[in-house]
Design brief:
Blueprint: E1 4-8, H1 13-23, E2 28-33, H2 40-50, E3 53-57, H3 63-73, E4 78-81, H4 88-93, H5 95-116, E5 121-127, E6 139-141, E7 146-148, H6 165-185, E8 188-194, E9 196-198, H7 210-220, E10 224-227, E11 233-238, H8 239-252, E12 258-261, E13 268-270, H9 271-282, E14 288-291, E15 300-301, H10 306-312, H11 320-333, H12 335-342
Parallel strand pairs: 1-2, 1-4, 2-3, 4-5, 5-8, 8-12, 9-11, 10-14, 11-15
Antiparallel strand pairs: 6-7, 11-13
Helix pairs in contact: 1-2, 1-8, 3-5, 5-6, 7-9, 7-11, 9-11
Length: about 350
């Protein structure tokens, strides 16, 4: 009997990749998405052209939508909860919607899991923002980048939680609910705290999906605004590497486990380095200006992912340059659809 997977946010960037990845490994896939995200209609069309999957238009904020989806699925072996409000700036403008999607939506999914499919395994896409601004960690600055003074491998799962921004609070609350449902109700839930995930089919915008947005703007000849001084450091993780981690979590993670998911110290770059890389790939300079820092922006973050290596045998494989080159090639191949979205 084939295994059945439910994916919230399955027409999103990570969700559509996950649907294809696991379908090709023999899973039956059912997707829930409200199609509110820019590019989701295009990703849904891609899914329908690529794999055989069920699609349900619904919203995780609706308890009825989520419960009906679970009840209608019949057998449920795994759930990937990827649906989310994903931008810090949007959360500052509209904290109520941010809470409803990220915190209440996660509770709706957890309750459906508990009541309808308590034997299924759930993976929750959390965020490194649950660690806050990391004010307790001393940060150094060189000529071109910020770095941790005392964390050569980056931030581990042992770092204290310190939610910052409404987005950090809503995702952090969801993160802890997912963990606690393993302890209190005995569910098999796993939290994955993700850093900068990038890849194809990511319709990035200025306040979310910044690597994709930089690439889209560079190819379109649009000016880029850098918030801060451009020396801030992030660890980039290719979406395919993330999916391998999800697979390892489903196969080997214990209930209530938490893992950091990022490129780590070896794949950390600052924003200006990514711009320079893009200039080399597209063959022209990229216009950019600077603006004030935004709430919740960390000067440096990269993940210590060694727990996932020890327990799951996972580590990133795709180099930053290799991933960025593949993403640029995909944008060039789909430029008409991407430019159309960008101008609306």
């Amino acid at each position: 009997m084939s295994r059945r997977m439910l994916i919230t946010g399955g027409a999103g960037f990570i969700g559509c990749h996950a649907a294809v990845y696991f379908a090709e490994k023999g899973w039956d896939i059912s997707v829930l998405d409200n199609l509110s995200r820019q590019g989701s209609e295009l990703n849904l069309a891609y899914l329908r052209d690529t794999i055989d999957c069920e699609f349900h238009q619904g919203d995780v904020r609706s308890r009825e939508d989520v419960e009906n989806w679970f009840h209608g699925a019949g057998r449920v072996d795994a759930v990937l909860h990827l649906a989310s409000q994903v931008a810090v700036t949007t959360s500052v403008r509209d904290p109520r919607t941010d809470f409803d999607v990220n915190a209440r939506g996660t509770l709706n999914v957890l309750e459906a899991l508990r009541c309808v499919a308590p034997g299924a395994r759930l993976i929750f896409a959390s965020t490194n923002k649950v660690y806050g601004g990391l004010e307790r960690q001393r940060v150094t600055v060189s000529r071109d980048r910020y770095d941790f003074a005392n964390l050569p491998q980056g931030v581990s799962e042992d770092e204290a939680l310190d939610f910052h921004s409404p987005y950090g609070c809503s995702k952090g609350a969801a993160d802890q609910y997912v963990r606690d449902y393993a302890r209190v109700y005995g569910l098999h839930t796993v939290v994955v705290r993700q850093s900068c995930i990038y890849g194809t089919r990511q319709f990035g915008v200025e306040d979310q999906g910044w690597v994709a947005w930089f690439a889209i703007a560079a190819l379109a000849g649009q000016a880029i605004t850098i918030y801060g001084d451009g020396k801030q450091v992030r660890d980039l993780l290719w979406v395919g590497d993330l999916l391998r981690l999800y697979e390892g979590c489903l196969a080997r993670a214990h209930p209530g486990a938490i893992y950091n998911a990022g490129g780590g110290a070896d794949k950390r770059v600052n924003l200006l380095e990514v711009l320079s890389m893009l200039e080399g790939i597209v063959g022209r300079s990229v216009s950019h200006t600077f603006a004030d820092w935004r709430p919740g922006d960390q000067k440096v973050f990269y993940s210590d992912y060694r727990k996932a290596t020890r327990e799951l045998g996972w580590e990133p494989r795709v180099t930053v340059r290799g991933g960025v080159q593949e993403m640029v090639a995909w944008i060039q191949a789909h430029s008409d659809a991407i430019w159309s979205l960008a101008t609306h």
